[in-house]
Amino acid sequence: MSEEQAATEDQAIQDTTVLGSDSPSDNLDWKASLSSELANDPTITQFKDVESLAKTVVHQQKQMGSRIPIPKTDEEYKELYGKLGRPDDPTGYETKIPEGMEAYFNENAVNDFKNIAHEIGLNQNQVNALMDYQSRSMQQELDTQPAMLSAQKEQTEKELKSEWGVEYDRNIRAAQRALQVYGDPEILELMNTTAGNNPAVVKLFARLGAEVTEDMTQNTQNNNLAVSRLDAQDEISQVFSNNNHPYFQPTHPEHLAAVERVRQLHEKVHGGK
User: For the stretch 240-257, what's the b/e string if a residue is b when 16 or more beta carbons lie within 10 angstroms of its beta carbon?
Assistant: First the structure.
């Protein structure tokens, strides 16, 4: 046998025996101190040496340290929300209302929002995001409102013209006249919204306007008392609620005029009966 053949045979023997292998001796018995059950557990057998096992354990411990445990009690939730940035109470939130949008954020509604945000554990960044979303949604609605009102107006005009026919223009003038007589600033402002395009609302004011026109005509024909029936009734109530009114003072220089005025008002209300 040549020296080369002998060396190859010796190497083959070393590679197939424990003592002849090149494996470090400190890795041979690293599981020897473990019980048979533990040493043969799949969790352990996957590691070839102690160093691999140690690295895995250290890594897992670091991962566990960065995790937040799921809270179970109110106190635990309170602590968690505090760590995540929730203020101590709802007043701690800052709600920045965009310029020009103040009229659309009612103070009570904003306070209710703060209370709910605090209850569900929101932090300031989350509140800011929701406020920004609400502002953008409102602005988008305002931007599209003119086109929406125009489309509603067209639809209402079509519907009322179909129903009223040739009386459409007269009824619209009557409705506008009723607004002039009965419309206070709040109602007039409301008529600039979708309410002003509601067919039922337009019909209501048209009927009121027709009554106003009828009253004015009767006033001109009868006694020139240019007030509506409702206004006449209101004036009568004011007279009779004031004991110092000339109507109740026979010696007052305006007593006879007051009596005549009340007579005309009664005639207006009761149609001369």
Answer: eeeeebbbeeeeeeeeee
Does residue 57 sit in the same domain as residue 110?
no
Domain that holds residue 136: 74-143
Whether residue 164 is predicted with pLDDT greater than 80 in this model: the reply is yes
Alpha-carbon span 177 to 208, nearest angstrom: 9
> Which band of pLDDT confidence, cut at 50, 70 and 90, is reported for residue 16?
low
232 shares a domain with 266: yes
* In a shared domain, residues 85 and 138: yes
Q: Rounded to an integer, what distance in angstroms lies between the CA atom of residue 32 and that of residue 226? A: 116
- Number of separate domains in the chain: 3
What are 222's two structure tokens?
């009868």
Percentage of the chain surpassing pLDDT 90?
25
Contact 20, 13 (CB under 8 A): yes
Per-residue pLDDT at 27 exceeds 60: no
* pTM, entire model: 0.44
